[in-house]
Structure formats: C-alpha cells, structure tokens
Input
Amino acid sequence: MLIALSGTPGCGKTTAAEELEARGYQVHYLTGMIEGWGQFGPPDETGSVPVDVDELRDLLGTWAEGLRGVNVLDGHLSYLAPADAVLVLRADPDTIRKRLSSRNYPEGKVMENAEAEGISSVLIYALMEMKDRGREERVFERDITDLTPGECADWAVKMISALKGEDLKSLVRYRPGKVDWTEVISGWY
Ligand code: ADP
Ligand code: MG
Output
C-alpha cells in the first residue's frame, strides 16, 4: 500500500512524515529521491528542483513496483505516484506565509505558495491525477493548522488503518470540499 502525503510547501508534510517514520512506518522523501535520480534540476533559490511531471510520474510508477507493505511518500508532488490514497494536508495560508518567510524564501515564492494553498491548488491537481487513475474517491484533505505533528501522525495512522480495511465510508468527512480559505484570502486585499 502506498499513501501519498501531499500539500502546499510549508503545510507540515515532512514533519508529519518524520513522526510516522519514528513510529516505524516505511517513509520515503520525494525531494531526496528526485535528487538521487539526478534527472532534473538545477535547484532554484529555495532548493526545489523543477521537474517534468510526466517524467516524474513514470519514474514513480517504476519505483512503486518494488514496494512491499505499507509505504508513505512525502512530497507535494507525491500524488503523481500510483498511490492507494492521497492525503492532502492543508494549513492556513497565513501560517504558510509565516513559515516560508522564516525559511528565507523570497517574497514572491512565499506569496505564490500561500496563494496556491488559498485556492486549493495541490488538492485540485491531486484530484485530477487520481481521477485519471479511477481513484478520485481516494483523495482526502484535513486542515492541520492547529494540530501537533503527533496529532497529524495519529490521523494518518487512522486513515491507513481504514484504507487497509477498505472502509472508505468512515472517511467521508475527509473528502475534499471542507477546507475553505476564502476569508483568509479576502483579508489580504
Ligand atoms: P512541508 O514538508 O510541508 O514543506 P514542513 O514539515 O517542513 O512542511 O514544515 C514547515 C514548517 O512548519 C517547519 O518549520 C515546521 O517546524 C513547522 N511545522 C510543521 N508541522 C507543524 C505543526 N504540526 N505544528 C507547528 N509547526 C509545524
Ligand atoms: Mg517537506
């Protein structure tokens, strides 16, 4: 089983993924994998590497063939992998702004990501990708702004357990459409 942990940069994916790894899950970090493949690049000023999504999808397809057991893939483009489910972590765009600014991202990049979160961009890409795979009903989202990393990991564990049992009905509350940042964004203008 492959669970993609996606979301806008700064939402807390890697922190939650590390918590899952500490609990014994097999966790893979897409940024490092992309670096290792050495096929894309060079990295921009924020360290992120521009990728060709079609090539990355192919690489992830081949990579996933070798997986056994439950696997978690951290990365905002993790939805390009042949995942059994995509968990899109959501966080308040103002929180994303603050976090990326303190990571010394250039202001343009900070706003690009905060706005992307505001308009649910990653969620929509994940839905389109999973729709192409006939798995649209396996995309979930949760606002984790006020959760601790441990609580995020608890949620992921709960999701994995329900998915193992193919109990999709119990997960309807995490189907897309619940998170709405309209009010946050309107405060910007
Ligand atoms: P991503 O991998 O989605 O880009 P990170 O996990 O690197 O995000 O987290 C971005 C920043 O937010 C880091 O400074 C991290 O310490 C902080 N952070 C992550 N998760 C939480 C959380 N649940 N609560 C508070 N701060 C968090
Ligand atoms: Mg990360």
About this structure: Strands lie at 2-6, 26-29, 71-74, 85-90, 139-143. The chain has one domain: 2-186. The pocket of adenosine-5'-diphosphate (ligand 1) is lined by residues 7, 9-15, 99, 144, 147-149, 152 (CB under 6 Å). Residues 27 and 72 are 5 Å apart (CA to CA).
